[in-house]
Amino acid sequence: MASFLIVNPRSGDGRPDELVAEAERRGIRTCVLAEGDEPAQVAREAEGDALGMAGGDGSLAPVADVAIQRDLPFACIPFGTRNHFARDIGLDRDDPIAALAALVDGEERRIDVGRANGRLFLNNVSLGLYAQLVHRREEHRHRRATFARLRALGILATHRTPLGITLGGQRIDARVVLVSNNAYALDVLSVGEREGLDEGRLHFYALLGVLRPEWEERGGTQFTVDAAAGRLRAAVDGEPEVLETPIDFTVEPGALRVLLPRGPRT
Questions:
Q1: Across the chain, which distance is largest between two alpha carbons, in Å?
Q2: How far apart are CA 70 and CA 67, in angstroms?
Q3: Which of 119, 136, 177, 209 is deepest in the core (most CB within 10 A)?
Q4: Cα–Cα dist 68/4, whole Å
Q5: What percent of the chain has pLDDT over 70?
Q6: Which H or E run includes 66?
Q7: Among the residues of 100-219, which ranges form H helices?
Q8: What is the pLDDT, as a whole number, of residue 148?
Q9: Confidence at 132, pLDDT banded by 50, 70, 90
Q10: DSSP 8-state assignment for residue 169
């Protein structure tokens, strides 16, 4: 039975024809999502011995979750703007054609996934300023916007109100919070890379301070974030979401069977 690839044509440059043609040439069954199609539902009904998703970071988790439920291997085909997950598992995030090899004769490894109130995430969930910017991008998605690095200290300096959240009952006076699946290398202005995806831990990062902001980090297998507001704007793998509080963050070690092309990777 052939592998099954789902393609989000609204990711990246929005021109999937070459990718689809190459996938079909290699014997990979493909489905290009139409308006209104739910990737998870397509994945549930797909016939194949492996599931692939071609899209940006926000497109991957729903299909990966179905792959876990069906105990099928999952392949990421980088086809978005940033492709952070593809980078962190060692793919060339600018070469989706090369990534198709994983669905033909790939090698399998197991990696961790995180969950926020049961919702799967592969990269991270952000709360606070960055999440607000993601929601603003969604509200004005047809306008040009540059916020990939938080607009840095200028934005931080003008948004001084803490989130009003608690972590395990302890108040956290931060304007930006990030809960990640495995550890990131962070600087004040950006989220860096992860060295691994199989340590079996979450990491909680809170950006503290105004004039000299710095990250406070905690590691663990479970975190509970609460807020008096009852809900918080969030960015789940870069996609806007509103999460009911308390938010229970958990990790599932080795839950996802990821397929990767054989041979050297970046």
A1: 58
A2: 5
A3: 177
A4: 15
A5: 83
A6: helix 57-70
A7: 102-105, 129-139, 152-158
A8: 44
A9: low
A10: T
**Ranges assigned E (strand) in 46-164:** 51-55, 74-78, 107-116, 119-121, 124-128
Of 125, 133, 104, 131, nearest to 5 by C-alpha is 104
- Contact predicate 64/58, CB 8 Å: no
Residue 146 has pLDDT above 60, yes or no: no
Q: Which residue carries 């995430």 as its tokens?
A: 121
Beta strands in 33-123 (DSSP E): 51-55, 74-78, 107-116, 119-121
Strands 51-55 and 4-7: parallel
Degrees to nearest 5, angle at CA 266 with 260 and 13: 80
CA distance 58 to 42: 16
The pLDDT tens digits of the residues spanning 33-66 come to 999 999 999 999 999 999 999 999 999 999 999 9
Report how far residue 66's alpha carbon sits from residue 82's, in angstroms, rounded to the nearest whole number.
Answer: 23
Within 13 A of 204's CA, how many CA atoms are on the CB side?
A: 20
Contact, 44 vs 19, CB < 8 A? Answer: no
Residue pair 32/7 in contact (Cβ under 8 Å)? The answer is yes
Instruction: Name residues whose C-beta falls within 8 Å of residue 75's C-beta, 6 or more positions apart in sequence.
Output: 3, 5, 50, 51, 52, 53, 99, 102, 103, 106, 258, 259, 260
Parallel, antiparallel, or unpaired for β 4-7 and 29-32?
Answer: parallel
